[in-house]
């Protein structure tokens, strides 16, 4: 009985610490650009352009990785997003931005199949003049950080 209680207590502590880490990651992402203070229409305007992936952070482990290839995303004024790997187009999808509360939320729709794109599913969206962040760590997903590409 004592070993079962110890296992249960350890599980609760692990889940609690995981939730604490995820809450901290979310607030860090929002503070990075401060998008929680700009409106949805301004965020949509600032998102337009070409962005280079500089890091991805695991919401489960906290590990940060930098890409070993040039990965870029171009977003147009209709929120069509196109991903490029080493300059070659790999996938296009519709980026949907919404603001149900203070934070701006995103989801992606793959136009060809009508399904969500696996790499960027849904979560908190932050943008400023130099950074673009897709944060899905609240669901133990990844946090992707992009920087504005030079023209």
Average pLDDT: 76
Largest sheet: 8 strands, antiparallel, barrel
% residues in beta strands: 35-45%
- Cα separation of the termini: 65 Å
| Secondary-structure-derived class | alpha+beta
Specify Rg, calculated over alpha carbons.
17 Å
The CATH level-2 architecture is identified as Beta Barrel
Question: N-to-C SSE series?
Answer: HHEEEEEEEEE
Shape: globular
The CATH topology name reads: Lipocalin
Protein name: Lipocalin family protein
Keywords: Signal
Signal peptide: 1-23
Short characterization:
It comes from Spirosoma profusum. The protein is of the alpha+beta class and 151 residues long.
Blueprint (SSEs and pairs):
Elements: H1 2-33, H2 40-47, E1 49-58, E2 64-65, E3 71-75, E4 80-85, E5 88-98, E6 104-109, E7 122-127, E8 131-135, E9 142-148
Antiparallel strand pairs: 1-2, 1-3, 1-9, 3-4, 4-5, 5-6, 6-7, 7-8, 8-9
Protein name: Lipocalin family protein
Keywords: Signal
Organism: Spirosoma profusum
What does this 3D model show about the protein?
This protein has 151 residues and is an alpha+beta fold. It has one domain: Lipocalin (Beta Barrel), CATH 2.40.128. The chain contains two helices and nine strands, in the order H-H-E-E-E-E-E-E-E-E-E. It has helices at residues 2-33, 40-47; strands spanning 49-58, 64-65, 71-75, 80-85, 88-98, 104-109, 122-127, 131-135, 142-148. Strands 1-3-4-5-6-7-8-9 form an eight-stranded antiparallel β-barrel. The longest helix is centred in the first third of the chain and has 32 residues, at 2-33. It is globular and about 35 Å long.
């Amino acid at each position: 009985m004592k070993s079962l209680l110890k296992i249960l207590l350890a599980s609760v502590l692990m889940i609690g610490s995981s939730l604490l880490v995820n809450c901290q990651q979310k607030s860090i992402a929002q503070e990075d650009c401060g998008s929680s203070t700009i409106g949805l229409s301004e965020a949509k305007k600032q998102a337009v352009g070409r962005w280079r992936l500089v890091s991805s952070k695991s919401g489960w482990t906290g590990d940060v990785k930098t890409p070993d290839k040039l990965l870029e995303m171009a977003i147009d004024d209709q929120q069509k997003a196109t991903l490029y790997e080493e300059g070659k187009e790999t996938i296009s999808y519709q980026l949907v931005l919404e603001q149900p509360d203070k934070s701006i939320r995103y989801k992606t729709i793959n136009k060809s199949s009508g399904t969500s794109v696996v790499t960027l599913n849904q979560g908190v969206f932050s943008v400023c003049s130099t950074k673009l962040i897709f944060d899905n760590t609240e669901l133990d997903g990844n946090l992707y950080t992009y920087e504005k590409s030079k023209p």
